[in-house]
Design goal:
The chain has 301 residues and is an alpha/beta fold. It folds into two domains: 216 residues, Metallo-beta-lactamase, Chain A, CATH 3.60.15.10; 68 residues, Winged helix-like DNA-binding domain superfamily/Winged helix DNA-binding domain (Arc Repressor Mutant, subunit A, Orthogonal Bundle), CATH 1.10.10.10. Helix content is 33%, strand content 21%. Strand 8 and strand 9 form a beta hairpin. It is globular, with a radius of gyration of 20 Å. The chain binds zinc ion. The site of zinc ion has 4 residues, from loops.
């Protein structure tokens, strides 16, 4: 558990996207009413990976649901507890990355609300404090009197990723399936590009009116936005293939500059993870070979 007040100004000052307008819109630990049924409290953890900070959403008016309590920051958890004021029933987690779920244990300790998430364990980067009271599966429905939430399993960013569809208004609480203004990192082995694309295709076909991502603003026109994400990934995949045509066998470090020539070099270490995910997908699709020492990749004949 840490306090975030001092670190916030320092972190925000270093981030080019934290303009005055963004800072006003995502003031940490303030309750923002997005609709009569949905509130947002953003945590004080802005970064290149988390945008203006992790959005915690609070659903309902009488019996409340919290989605993604965020990191275990005292001020953030206090803001959630104050708003809920004894009405919190359940804490839902989109996945167990450290910027999404560690606040759950603290929030549960204070409120007694039950923690519900996918039971799938991640292997590389994850919240080690994570425990759950109720495992969730695709298609589960959480019915409260005032509203109902459908669970949608969306593996890809990580294997235990869930989205939550609020029935009635059809808002999708999308965790890290999509991010406002940047591309989601797909880091193997927990992340999988083929599954991520399948999950995007599935969401395109669902009746979604708006997407509430864990980082950034609410997105209207979900279907066209999701479709543009699919096309973006397929364009990147084509660049991987084109680069392999040019160089023959190559390592990820050798492929990075050409495949991500449109991405600032400072982000290439992160892009390397998504590049590996693209290559694994192409190998799954029988279009690419991985060398026996697993270091280099080449096109299949
Ligand atoms: Zn994540």
């Amino acid at each position: 558990m840490v306090t975030g007040e001092n670190g916030y100004e320092e972190a925000a000052a270093k981030l080019p996207f934290m303009t005055e307008q963004v800072r006003q819109e995502f003031k940490p630990d303030q309750v923002v009413e997005l609709s009569p049924m949905v509130r947002r409290i953003t945590a004080a953890n802005p970064s290149m990976m988390t945008g203006p900070g992790t959005n915690t959403f609070i659903i309902g008016n009488d019996r409340l649901t919290v989605i993604d309590p965020g990191p275990a920051l005292v001020e953030h958890t206090e803001a959630i507890v104050d708003y809920c004021d004894g009405r919190l029933e359940q804490i839902l987690l989109t996945h167990t990355h450290p910027d999404h779920s560690p606040g759950a244990a603290l929030l549960q300790q204070i409120t007694g609300a039950s923690v519900k998430a996918s039971p799938v364990q991640l292997t590389r980067i994850y919240d080690e404090t994570f425990t759950l009271n109720q495992p969730l599966e695709d298609g589960d429905r959480l019915d409260l009197d005032e509203y109902s939430i459908e669970v949608v399993h969306t593996p890809g960013h990580v294997a235990n990723h869930l989205c939550f569809l609020l029935k009635g208004c059809h808002w999708l609480f999308a965790g890290d399936m999509v991010m406002d203004g940047s591309t989601v990192v797909i880091a193997p082995p927990d992340g999988h590009m083929g599954e991520y694309l399948n999950s995007l295709h599935r969401l395109v076909d669902m009746p979604i009116e708006a997407i509430a991502p864990a980082h950034g603003r609410i997105m209207d026109s979900p279907a066209s936005y999701l479709q543009s994400l699919i096309e973006h990934r397929l364009r990147r995949e084509q660049k991987v293939i084109d680069s392999l045509v040019n160089v023959g066998a190559a390592t990820i470090d050798e492929l990075l500059p050409s495949v991500y020539d449109d991405v600032p070099v400072v982000l290439h270490s992160v892009a390397a993870m998504s590049l590996e995910a693209h290559l694994i997908k192409l190998a799954d699709d029988q279009r690419v070979n991985r060398s026996d020492d697993r270091a280099s990749w080449s096109l299949k004949d």
